Structures are given as C-alpha cells and as structure tokens.
Amino acid sequence: MSNNQQHIVSAYDRDLEAVQAMLMKMGGLVEASILDGAKALESRDVELAEKVRLGDKAIDALEEKINEETARCIALRAPVSTDLRVLLTVLRFTGSLERVGDYAKNMAKRTSVLAEMRPIQGTDAALRRMAREVQLMLKDVLDAYIQRDAMLAEDVRQRDHDVDQMYNAMFREFLTFMMEDPRNITACMHLHFIAKNIERMGDLVTNMAEQVIYLVSGTMPEEGRQKGDETSFMTAED
Amino acid sequence: MSNNQQHIVSAYDRDLEAVQAMLMKMGGLVEASILDGAKALESRDVELAEKVRLGDKAIDALEEKINEETARCIALRAPVSTDLRVLLTVLRFTGSLERVGDYAKNMAKRTSVLAEMRPIQGTDAALRRMAREVQLMLKDVLDAYIQRDAMLAEDVRQRDHDVDQMYNAMFREFLTFMMEDPRNITACMHLHFIAKNIERMGDLVTNMAEQVIYLVSGTMPEEGRQKGDETSFMTAED
Known about the structure:
Chains A, B: Plays a role in the regulation of phosphate uptake. 2 copies of one chain form a homodimer. By secondary structure, chain A is mainly alpha-helical.
C-alpha cells in the first residue's frame, strides 16, 4: 500500500468514526426519549413530558448533522463496496431513529390530555413495559451495528414478536374497556394510539436489525419472522 | 472537457435516468395502491383489496432494486455535489414510498374485517377523498422532483394542511359515533386507524416535498407549516 493510499484509508476511518460517534449519541437520546416518554405517561408527569417534547429538536438537529457529514464523507472519500454500504446504512439508521424519536415525542404530547382523564386500569404499566422492551431492542441493535454482530441483530428481530404480542393483547383490552363504559372511549383512543406507536417503534428497530444483518452477511434475512400485528383482522368477539 | 470526462458524465446521466425511471414506476404503483385501497374499502371489495395486498410485494422488490442500482451508481461514478445529492434523495424517496405503500396495504387488509360490520355513515367517502388528496400530492411531488420545481413542492407541502384538517374532523366524528352506540366501537377503531394512516401518508409525501425543496434550493423550508394533527390534545368535548 502506498503512503498516499494509507493516508486516504485512515481519513475515511476517521470520518466514519466521527459519524458513528454522532449516531451513537443520537441513539442514546432516542433511547432516553422512549423511557422518559413512557415514564412521564405512567406518572402523568407533564413536566417530564415537556422535556421529551423539547428534546426531540436536539434529535432532529443531530440527524441533519449526521446526514450532512455522511454525504460529505461519501463525496470526499468516494468509498466503494463495504465502506459505502456502511455509510448508506448510517443514512437509513438516522431516518429510522428520527421516526422513533417522533413517536416518543407523540407519546409525551398525549400525557397532558390523559392527565385530565381517569386512568384505565393496568394500561400505563403495560405501555411502560412495552416501551422498555423496545428501548432494549434499540440499545442492542446499535451494539449489533457497532460490533457487526448479525446474531445479536437476529435476536432483536425475533424479540419484536413479543412487542407485537403485547400490542395485540392491549388492542383487545381497549375494545373491552370502551364497550364496558363509553366514558373510557376518549382515553382509550389516546392510549391505543400510544400502544400502536410503540409497536411501530419496534418495527423500525426491527428494520434496523435487518439492515445490520444485510451489512454483515450481504443478504436480507428470510421472511422467518411472523407479521405481528394481527389486529387488522381483529374484532372484539375474537 | 476531455473526451474521457464527457464519457464519464454521460454514463452518470444514463445511470441516473435508469434509476429515475424505476423511481417513477415505483411512485406510479404506490399511487395506484392508494386509490385502489380506498376504492376497495369504500365498496367493501375484498378482491380488489387482495390485489392491493399482493401488489405491495412488487413495490418492495422495486425499492430493493432501485436502492441497489443507486448504491452501484454512487460506487461506480463517485458523484459529488448536486449529483450525489440527487442520488441520496432517491434513496430517501424509495424509503418514503415503501412506507406509503405499506399504509395502503394496511388499508386494504382492514377491508375484509370491515366488510363484516355495518357501515359508519359518511366515513368511507370521507376516507376516499382524503386518500385521493394524498395521491394527488404524491403525483405532484414526483413531478416536482423530475422538474426540480420547488414551487410545486411548496404547494404540495401546504396542501398537507388540508389532509390534516380532514383527519382532525374525522377523529372527532369517530369519538361521537362510538359514544352514541358501543356497537360502532370496533368498526370505528379500524376506520380511525385507516384515517390516521392516510394522514401519515400525507406526512411522508410532505417530507418528500421538503427534500425536493432542499435539492433545488440547498436549504430546508422554514417551519412555516403548522403541525396538523391536533388530536393529541383532543377530547370528545372539544
């Protein structure tokens, strides 16, 4: 390898390291938003919810910065093969993380309106468990990306099934609560939204896991995973 | 310009043209899915709904193909500046289109369960109007991209406000229907989901419009657009 090439390679590595450090920071902020959003909801803590809402701006700003740096790196270093694939994965990850952050913000936004309504028994704790599960999946998928660990990514992908099951169970519960007492309807509509958004967060994290598998193995995982949201076909009588 | 450079330039142009042709095809398939999905729903046409569901596979396959071709073009031609930005926009567009297609598929999936329930007066036509509006926005944003027309993209962005207003009105209606008669609850939950998904399609198309503006002008549009979904704060008493 000529000195010149060596120079180019390490410049790419340095750029990649900087981009990945920002990506991990973004991931950390999104993880915190998920946990804080769910905590704010459970304790009807309007202040914490406001913090989550405002925090989303920092996440969006970071997304823009990472995208710019990544595009700059592609333009400047003209990477090919795996190096390029790594950078294109970064761009997909920021898009997914931004959306997960948006869902967390939305969960926080609904806290103030739900604070005015009577609680629906058991649902807040169930939502927090779901959110916690998704946050752990996100943490692991970021680790899997950094370690290029396809096994861990596959594990994340499988765990999304649990999140889907939690969601399906809650959908049924919400229908029941609403039918029992129409005064539950408005609160259940909001809570159901939150449940669905957490389920969607899980889907986004699962997409990220599939990207890691693709990055490591060069092929997308087979359709081994069952589609989890069964509620498209569900009625209260099920 | 040397002959060699000219050769490189036109090879890039040829690649870009091929990628964009596939992108337009993908956009056309997604537009058809939106319209057919809404039509299937309104007429409770389970066969047409099934066609939409199956059609989503072609959309996904096209997304993968476009992404591969785009990555190949970046690796091979090492474009910089605007050329690179155009290709990175293609990658964002395929991601958004794939999601819009997914929402259309989901609308179709709910047709069979809704076919078993009594209709909720007026909502199917309202959903079809919303879907039609989003399909027109998508058509225009694809035109705006090809023509590099920032004005048209800005117009699309503004029209998302109408879609949001339609959604807000429907949310209120669904709450009322559910409170009037608990037998409406299950159907309204499904219909509300569909309405929210159409509203989300509008958001994705709006993101695409912002990408076009960024591509043409080099800056993201100001926050001039109001956030349209007000239902995070909404109760039936509003």
